[in-house]
Amino acid sequence: PTSARVKVAVRCRPFNQREKDRGAKLIIDMNGAMTTIQNPETPNEEPKKFTFDFSYWSHDGYTEKDDGYLEANPGSKYSSQRRVFDDLGQGVLDNAFKGFNCSLFAYGQTGSGKSYSMVGYGNNKGIVPITCDELFKAIEAGDKATKYEVTFSMLEIYNEQVRDLLSKDNPKGGLQVRQNPKLGLFYVVGLKKVAVGSYAEIDKRTQEGTANRTVASTNMNATSSRAHTVVTITFDQISKNEAGEETKKSSVINLVDLAGSERADSTGATGDRLKEGANINKSLSALGNVISALADLSSGGKKKVMVPYRDSVLTKLLQNALGGNSKTVMIAALSPADINYDETLSTLRYADRAKKIKNKAVVNENPLD
Ligand code: ADP
Ligand code: MG
Asked: Is 114 among the residues known to form the active site?
């Protein structure tokens, strides 16, 4: 197995209308690999510094084209959707073709730009659709003697319950999550997994799944989902090796758009919303605990660390993505504004811990039986 760190990217979006209306000040800066954040209450103190594998400045320096696409101005440090795909999405594709499992997940408070980076809006397509599009382009240009098989599934975790987004009739209380006794991995019982033969089919399925999402509004962002959305693509390549035996190379690609990381009280939630917030925090704090435990393990300080994967549905399903057999990338989405200082700092700290995790990815290649 090749031991590799989880790669971490940060991305800072433009001011939104609410921030503009409140005369928000810019507290994030990026220079090379370094991201700094200024505490607005102590403007004379040095800003806090962080370094990440990829730093995407998408706050300013762009022009909106006629079709709505945001393009970098010549000489500006603006990172476009294409640029983010070229680093992160292309990496996922390359690894998938080699037979590695891959995971890409987006973390950050509601409205920070997670869905923009992952899925995108309008002509500003995100990493997920571009990666799916490029996957089929690569298959078409690929080896004609190889048989390619792609499947697609989409689920959401909402209040610690799993809903199949490709299904119209989900059982009350959600689908069950069980552990495979042989592999030790958790899976969702009865989740729909559809074969797809083109990008258009994936696009259609994604729209179907998106329409089935649980959407609840909060003060923070009226259209934002309060659920974790997980898209899983399996990619198999069946070919003959030099000895003439059929072998199968397999890759599982997990694409995760996490629910907002903010504490429930900062969104003005009450009643049912608050319960949701508490559960969302349960999954996300479990994720935080898993990341901390894995970071401790990887830094070698502590020998016996229990990694509490079982504490939430999210961490059960992300077990391989975190500390397991997967090449993993996390993208942390940042608000540029002083009014979000606390949440943005906590996102940066979360991301800083995640980059310490080492995974042990192996090529999944086996003879066909
Ligand atoms: P989240 O999924 O984290 O709740 P969104 O991705 O929906 O947040 O982003 C919130 C708003 O900010 C959207 O209107 C989106 O278009 C805008 N936005 C986010 N990131 C960017 C970016 N990199 N460039 C331009 N606009 C962005
Ligand atoms: Mg979103």
From this structure: yes
Distance CA 358, CA 184 (A): 19
Ligand 1 centroid – CA 36 distance (Å): 20
ipTM: 0.99
Cα 13 to Cα 130: distance, rounded to the nearest angstrom: 20
Q: How far is CA 55 from CA 62, 77, 78, 212, 245, in A?
A: 16, 10, 10, 33, 44
Q: Which is the catalytic residue, given 58, 79, 112, 115? A: 115
Domain boundaries, the chain: 2-367
Q: Which ligand 1 atom is the nearest neighbour of the CA of 221?
A: 4
Which atom of ligand 1 is nearest to 56's Cα?
Answer: 23
Q: What is the pLDDT of residues 110-162, one digit of tens each?
A: 999 999 999 999 999 999 999 999 999 999 998 899 999 999 999 999 889 99
Which ligand lies nearest to the CA atom of residue 228 in the structure? 2
Is 300 a known active-site residue?
A: no
Within 21-98, strands assigned E span 28-31, 34-37, 48-51, 54-57, 62-64, 70-72
Structure tokens at 275: 């319960």
- CB of 110 shorter than 6 A to ligand 1: yes
Q: Is 218 in the pocket of ligand 1 (CB under 6 A)?
A: no
Q: Confirm if 58 and 14 have CB atoms less than 8 A apart.
A: yes
Q: Decide if domain 2-367 falls under CATH 3.40.850.10.
A: yes
* Residue 171, C-beta contacts closer than 8 angstroms, at least 6 positions apart: none
Cα–Cα distance list, 340 to 11, 37, 40, 60, 277 (Å): 15, 11, 10, 18, 18
Is any atom of ligand 1 closer than 6 Å to the C-beta of 14? yes
